[in-house]
Amino acid sequence: MIRMKNIKKIYGAGSAQVEAIKDISLEVERNEFLGMIGPSGSGKSTLMNIIGCLDVPTSGEYYFEGESVENFNHNQLAEIRNEKIGFIFQNFNLLPYASTFENVEIPMIFKGVKSKARRARVMELLDRVGLAHRASHKPNELSGGEMQRVAIARALANNPSLILADEPTGNLDTKSGDEILAVFESLWKQGHTLVVITHNPNISARAQRIVKLKDGMIDNNKEKKGESPLF
Amino acid sequence: MKVIFLFRLFYQELKRQKKRITLTIFALAWGTFSIVILLAFGEGLKRQMIKSTHGLGEGICIVSSGQTLKPYKGLAKGRIIMLHEEDIELLQSRVAGIELISPECDRSRNNMTYERKSLTERVIGVSPSFEELRGYYPQRGSRFINSLDLKNKKRVVFLGTELKKRLFGKEEAVGKTVLINSIPFLVIGVMMDKIQNSMYSGPDVDKAAIPFSTYQAIYGDKYLRRLIYRPKDLSQAETVKKEVYKVLSQKYEFDPSDSQALEIWDMIEQEKLMNNIFLGIEAFMGIIGGLTLIVAGVGVANIMYVSAKKRTKEIGIKMALGAKKRYVLLQFVSEALMIAFIGGALGVLLSFAIVGLFQALNLKGEVADFLAHPVISLDIMILTALILGAVGFLAGVFPARKAASAKPVEALRYE
Known about the structure:
The complex is a heterodimer of chains A (231) and B (415). Chain A is an alpha/beta fold and 231 residues long. Chain A has a single domain, classed as P-loop containing nucleotide triphosphate hydrolases (Rossmann fold, 3-Layer(aba) Sandwich). Chain A is built from seven helices and ten strands. In chain A, the strands form two sheets. Chain A has a six-stranded mixed β-sheet, with helices on both faces. Chain A starts with a strand and ends in an 8-residue tail after the last strand. With 415 residues, chain B is of the alpha+beta class. Chain B folds into two domains: 2-54 and 271-413, no CATH class; 61-267, no CATH class. Chain B is 55% helix and 16% strand. Chain B contains 14 helices and ten strands. In chain B, strand 6 (177-180) and strand 7 (183-190) form a beta hairpin. In chain B, helix 9 (267-310) runs parallel beside helix 13 (378-404). The radius of gyration of chain B is 33 Å and the shape is elongated. Chain A binds chain B through residues 49, 52, 54-55, 74-75, 78-79, 81-83, 87, 89, 93-95, 97-98, 102, 105-107, 109-111, 115, 118, 154, 158, and chain B through 1-2, 5, 8-9, 12, 313-314, 317-325, 327, 407-409, 412.
């Protein structure tokens, strides 16, 4: 699914240069639930951005579903983000002026899905995250947990192969966090691949594998056996 | 859905930048108003000018006598070439491109009497085609000289508008008898009022026209004062003119390249020249209006830049969700176009109101005739729409490019 080799990311130039990622090689299998932990400044978010094709590495090789992403132009990257990757952010990143329905609809608009098909898909997804009754509400009329569930529905809109979450429960209370976690687990069971950055011990406890980052390097790569949803 | 989305975004932005957008829309409206109104008054002036030039006749050539400048076939230069009555038939048979032709003779000091009133006026002898050629259109309930009048040398007269007023006042003239040099003439028609800015031997409204045959029976002029023709096809006017000149040069034996042998007053050429002058005036006015609009365009660009900055986060989110650059471009350009469109529409409405007001007032007078009759033509509307479109597009495209070139990661992080 994902194969990264000797990825390096440097910000800035000259004396202000910051080496966010020094040297990371990482592989993620299809239908894996990968947790990523590490202190702030360890390069988690940078790595996540590179995985999500939001950013390109300074050097190194990155294969997404067997394709080398390096030489993709911005339109191709946009297509990958649109169709193959679903993003879930710590601060939800919903469009404030758009309703729940419209927020979930956006990725499908970019993909060019017909209006009728979009409508059906949005309602299906909202049903799945239990927010069908909130379809016409604006983000500021929703609770944090609800907003994050909208964001999850949005991430799933084009049925992506990879779901990337950056501290999805970071801004939520424990109860809402647990709800999100339950959604993640069911997604995993449905065959989605999940990469989740988290400080939440509950999430990392459920993850199949934990990657710990430190100073732009992988500190340890802990495999937890026997937790595949297939069993 | 996509379009509705763009409108929603625009509405959102309108709320966010209410004052700025309102001011810019006002500036655009003002710019549009000034460009449309300038052009409308220019167009009105042009139409009045053309109309008054047409007072002399539309697309006609007036040929009159001249003096040779070049010796030809042993004949010395300085010969005076005069036109004769038979030239009309000659030209009709030899030059196929002529549509209408009429001779004209005239005498200036004729005693004209109606009841106890007596005036000294100019009388012209012409044929029926003169009506069409020179715009001697009759008022309701009257007519111009016809072919029967010509054939039978009838003593009938067609009076110029002013002449009729002087002679008859408000009294009905048609059917009355006037004496011209003691010969009774029946008034058959009175000219419709017209404005005329080009003329020879005085304005047409002061003249009395009688059939050419009648004129000759009374005065027996040896020479024509002038002949007037109109080509069938205005685009062939130049060729027809050359042919006329050639035919006459053969008859009167002068060098066809001698430009002074006959005098030809070419209204077609004059109109072309006038059109060019007005094109220049219009271009000048258009440029002034256009500059005003460009200033307003800078305002639009400014808004779009601010908007692009404020919406960096939103753009980042959309990019993360798979928006391509062209979507961001489209969004900003369409917003700028929407602003331009609203401003433009307001400006156009305002100018229509002002133009409508002037048309309703229908001011009369020497100056007002020319300056107070603005017209909004289709050309003006198209031009304005094009300029507005260009302003909106340019004002949108640069901020849009800036917004679209944002890196998704940085845009997402922007607060």
